[in-house]
Amino acid sequence: MASTIVSETIAGLPKQLAPTDDQWSTTVEQCKLPKTVREIALKELREDENTREQCLLAFRQWILKNPDIQNVDIESTFLLRFLRTKKFSLPMAQQLLLKYLNLRQKYPMYFTNLDCLNPAVNDLIDAGYMFVSPFRDNHGRRVIIGSAKGFDLQKFTSKDLGLTHMVTYETLLNDEVNQVMGFTHIGDLASISPAYITLFTPNEFATLIKWGEVTFTYITCLLL
């Protein structure tokens, strides 16, 4: 059976135009984290300059040599999302990346054309369905607040819901401080009803929950 080809974007360039192994091996990337966050990353994630550089180099080489992965972003900020989640265990980060890419490929409607100016996404944010607090919690985590009553079942679709979540998470995960400190997700589900389940097929719902938990392991949930 032929293997599945996973294709994403690599800084807007085809994979064959990406930097070579030799080019990456001579690239020294400065850590973008503030000193206090670097100290937390060292203590909690085992991240230091040498570990970060060696893992990034090995991760890129693995991606560029893997025939089943095409056109994937190999910039440090993107790859560090997976390395930091798995405390710089390269094999575990590689598996997490594959699951993430497979989720994007299986449900492209939730991952393409991510734009907060999309009318439906903008309306959901304005309605308070999901928004990000300007303040962090006592542990330095970014706080994401959501309220089910902001989602009108007569107006919005599962695609609108998915895009709103992905716009939020993908934007926040581009901030390396958030990658280290993580998130607290506060959700008001008081108005939720069984009707919300009809937004997805049973298979879609089960898959999104299972893969979403694995892929977005940065989030601490506090359900009210």
Automatic annotation (TrEMBL):
Coiled coil: none annotated. One of its GO terms (cellular component) is membrane. SMART domains: CRAL_TRIO_N. Residues 75-100 form the CRAL/TRIO N-terminal domain. SUPFAM superfamilies: CRAL/TRIO domain, CRAL/TRIO N-terminal domain. PANTHER family: ALPHA-TOCOPHEROL TRANSFER PROTEIN-RELATED (PTHR10174), CELLULAR RETINALDEHYDE BINDING PROTEIN (PTHR10174:SF120). This is Clavesin-2. The gene is clvs2.
